[in-house]
Amino acid sequence: xxxxxxxxxxxxxxxxxxxxxxxxxxxxxxxxxxxxxxxxxxxxxxxxxxxxxxxxxxxxxxxxxxxxxxxxxxxxxxxxxxxxxxxxxxxxxxxxxxxxxxxxxxxxxxxxxxxxxxxxxxxxxxxxxxxxxxxxxxxxxxxxxxxxxxxxxxxxxxxxxxxxxxxxxxxxxxxxxxxxxxxxxxxxxxxxxxxxxxxxxxxxxxxxxxxxxxxxxxxxxxxxxxxxxxxxxxxxxxxxxxxxxxxxxxxxxxxxxxxxxxxxxxxxxxxxxxxxxxxxxxxxxxxxxxxxxxxxxxxxxxxxxxxxxxxxxxxxxxxxxxxxxxxxxxxxxxxxxxxxxxx
Length: 343
Description:
The protein has helices spanning about 1-10, 35-50, 70-75, 90-95, 105-115, 135-145, 165-170, 180-195, 215-220, 245-255, 270-280, 290-295, 295-310, 325-330, 335-340; strands spanning about 20-25, 50-60, 80-85, 120-125, 150-155, 200, 205, 235, 240-245, 260-265, 285, 315-320, 320-325. By secondary structure, the chain is of the alpha/beta class.
């Protein structure tokens, strides 16, 4: 697989015209890669693309994969940000989610990473699980704050169809998530993070000042990117494409010098709807100036008219020519965006 991704990097080197300012080694689980495998990927990226003077370089890691040896190597090759899949600091939650690590490993991984000079750390936390009370959710969040983790990504538990969890819930062997509890956990989370000095800069993301994820922010700002590996997505401003998800067929195609992907060319309306969706998820919100420059004055007038009810309901407001969601509105972000979409 690593050899195939190295080969794809060579095949895709002309996809981006601008320099690369962020690199993200994401899921699957890149922390299981050997030192040599990660180095070979990074060497090929440096060879194929023009890197900016400073590159935010993130590696996703499971707590049980993090060792002193790996941290030392990651640091030496330029990894400067870790995204650690903690999910919870509670044993009961981790067992319910069938995670490989335990609560002690979650805490130890963060502390060890800091010892090796990783100050830019993000962790994932899951809320709204049947095993998690309001008080226990607060303990989870407070643990992250006490560990001085500068960035948190927090997600409501979602049950994907045809997964093991979905089948167990169907058979009444497990309790389904409670939407009211999930909404309450999200509201509490916003209160706690604000009190602790974190910016709520995107619906699911909280950061200490100057510690936002540059990589994820580039997605929400519509910047161009190339994704490498099975199921990876790419965007060049005009079209989106996504690689074949089947590992064996991906490897076979790459060996033949073919990048196997599907593609869609975005219409102006699709591009506008994507901007509405992504911008409303951010703290800055939807810019009427940007909207006018790219889609015209009429679209600005339409959005202002269609957003009027949300403003009256206290779900949105306009500040400095930006349409922003309130805390109340953030609970309904996807629905509000959908109602503002153009056909």
